[in-house]
Amino acid sequence: MKEINSFVKRPEVLSPAGDKERLMAAVSFGADAVYLAGQAFGMRTSPNNFSEEEIVKAVDFAHKNSVKVYVTCNTLPHNEEVPKLPAFIQKLADAQVDAIIVADVGVLQLAKKYAPDVDVHISTQAGVVNYLTARAFYELGAKRVILARELTLEEIATIRAKTDRDLELEVFVHGSMCVSFSGRCLLSSYLTGRDANRGDCAQPCRWKYSLVEENREGQHFSIMEENNGAYILNSRDLCMINHIPEIINAGATSLKIEGRAKSAYYVATTTNAYHNAVDLYLSGKPIEPWIIEELEKISHREYSTGFFFGSEPGQIYSNGGYIRKYDVVAVCDGFKDGKIEVTQRNKFSKGDTLDVLEPGCRAFEAKVEKIFDQWGNELDSAPHAMQKLTIMLDMGKKVLPGAYLRKKR
User: In whole angstroms, what is the distance from residue 272 CA to residue 195 CA?
Assistant: First the structure.
C-alpha cells in the first residue's frame, strides 16, 4: 500500500445535511463536517432547508460533537437578490458557522467583508480545473476550493503540487453526477423554467427521450435501438470507495459525499462507509469487503469512477431509475426491558432476517423473534408506517439508538 504524501493530513469526511434528521445521521455515523443550506442562496431549494434559528441550533449540535458546519451560499444571484446577501452572510457569521460556500466572486467579496472571521470555500459551481484559478481564489481570500468533478487524479495532484499548502482541496467521492460541466446546466431552465443555477433543478437529464420528425406529429423514434426510448442524458452515480488511497495521495483535503436531497439512511450509510474506509487506509489496512457491500445497500444508479481515471462516467440508456436491493424497515429509538424500541418505516414480519447498521459499526444480521405494538400486544407483522413498536431479535441482541434495520428485497 502506498505511503501517504507527507503534506496531506487525514482528510475529512464531509457529509450532506438536508434537514435535522440527516444532520443527526451524519454526525452519528462519523462525519467530520457537514454542509447544509439556509432558506436562500443554496443550490437545493427545499422546504426542509434550515431556517436562521435552525442553523444556530445545527451549529451548536455539530460543534458539541466536534463536527464542522459549512453553509452553502453558492447560487448565482441576480441583481434583485444582491441587497439581501449582506444580512444573510452576517447571520451566518453570528451563528458561528465554520465556512461559507460561494460560487460567485462578488459573493466572495461580500463574505470577506461581512463575515471576515469565517472561512470561505469556493463551490464546484465555479468550475476550478487548474492551479492558476485555485491560486487566484486563494489570493482573494478563499480557504478551500471544491474542485470540478471533471478532473483526473493526475490533474488534482498537479493542482496540489502547484498551490499553497494552506489551500484546502475538496473532492467529490460519492453521489449523483451532473451531465453538465460543474453543474452549470440550462436544460431545466429551458424545459421547465426552473433555474438549476439558482438551486431549482428539475433534473430533466433523468427523463426519457426520443426523436420526433416535425412533419410526423406523434411518431416517436427511438434514439437507441430500443423499444422504449433512451435516457441519453442520465449519468451514472460516482463511487470511489475502492480508490481512497489514490484520492488521499493526490492531495485531497476533504472527501465530499453528494446528496443533500437524499434520505437520512443514505447519509448514514455513505458516511459510515467512507469514514471506515479512511480509518482503515490510515492504519495501513486494506478496505474490507463489508464496506463496499454497504454502498450496494442504498438506492443508487449504476456506479462509476467518474473522470478520476480519465474517462467520462457515461450514461445509463436503459432506464432512469435506481437500483434498490434493501428497504429500511425500522429505525431504532432505544432499548428498554430487553426489547428494542423502533419506529416502523416499511413492512416486516416475525421471522424475518434483518440487516442492522449501527452508528460507527459493521452491520450484522439478526432474526425477528417477536413484535409488539405500543400497548404490548404481540403482532405477526408490522405493516403500518411510522408505528411505534418494540421487537426482540434472536440471541437477545441489543441495538444502538439511531441504527437502521434493513430487509433485503
Answer: 33
